[in-house]
Amino acid sequence: MSIWDSFGGRKQPKGPEFDASSAPDASSFFSDVAIPDPTQLHPLSGLNQDTLDYITLEDSALDELPGSRSVLPSRGWSDDLCYGAGTTYLAALTVGGAWGLAEGLNKTPATAPPKIRLNGVLNSITRRGPFLGNSAGVVAMVYNGFNSGIGYARGKHDSANSIVAGALSGMIFKSTRGLKPMMISGGIVATIAGGWAVVRKTFF
Questions:
Q1: Residue 43 scores a pLDDT above 80
Q2: What is the mean pLDDT of residues 5-29?
Q3: Residues 63, 74 contacting (CB under 8 angstroms)
Q4: Which residues touch 34 (CB under 8 Å, ≥6 apart)?
Q5: Mean of the pLDDT values across residues 143-171?
Q6: For the chain, what is the mean pLDDT?
Q7: Helix or strand holding residue 200 (H, E)
Q8: Residue 169 in contact with residue 189, Cβ under 8 Å?
Q9: pTM for this structure?
Q10: CA-to-CA distance for 184 and 171, rounded, in angstroms?
């Protein structure tokens, strides 16, 4: 094409007119693209939640020894160890923290600056709480071992198992302190275990 033709020396044929209504818009673009369903991205989207083992426990897998049923369903000594040691540790940690709080408030002078008073209270809490929680957790683990062993040997779980297991675990916990501390510790733990056995039998 020459310059003369471009500037009007000869009329050029018109091309096809642009129809704006036929142009693709955003909605037509996204409809053509296969966008995955967000609900299918969930890890459990293709699973039947009614058949998952960690959501429900099969009744056939639970411990069938007489007297073994408690507050929570249990499949044996391992479940009892998790429940018993965990709850005992948390309960003792809370009691120890409250003990340390009261001790820190009593030992720190009321006229002391707030920072010093807060520091003394926190020191008492961190000293008493973990000490009592760790000690009770260890006793609970030993108690669970004795209680489960005695229960399987006798073929049943009852209050006698709990009292004997409590006495043995308490004595072992203080076995390095001499005979008298062993007897005192064994009596305390046996009393607590017997009380728990009565409460469980009465209310659960």
A1: no
A2: 57
A3: yes
A4: none
A5: 86
A6: 76
A7: helix 179-203
A8: yes
A9: 0.60
A10: 8
List the structure tokens of 156: 């049943």
Q: Two tokens at 58?
A: 């099969």
DSSP characters for 148-196?
HHHHHHHTS--HHHHHHHHHHHHHHHTTTS-HHHHHHHHHHHHHHHHHH
d(CA 191, CA 175): 18
Contact (Cβ atoms closer than 8 angstroms) between residue 93 and residue 133 = yes
Identify whether the C-beta of residue 139 lies closer than 8 Å to the C-beta of residue 121. no
Contact 143, 83 (CB under 8 A): no
- Which two tokens mark 79? 């479940």
Q: Identify the CA nearest to 173 among candidates 162, 160, 189.
A: 189
CA 185 to chain centre: 30
d(CA 164, CA 200): 17
Give the pLDDT confidence of 181-203 residue by residue, as tens digits: 999 999 999 999 888 888 777 76
The DSSP call for residue 43 is T
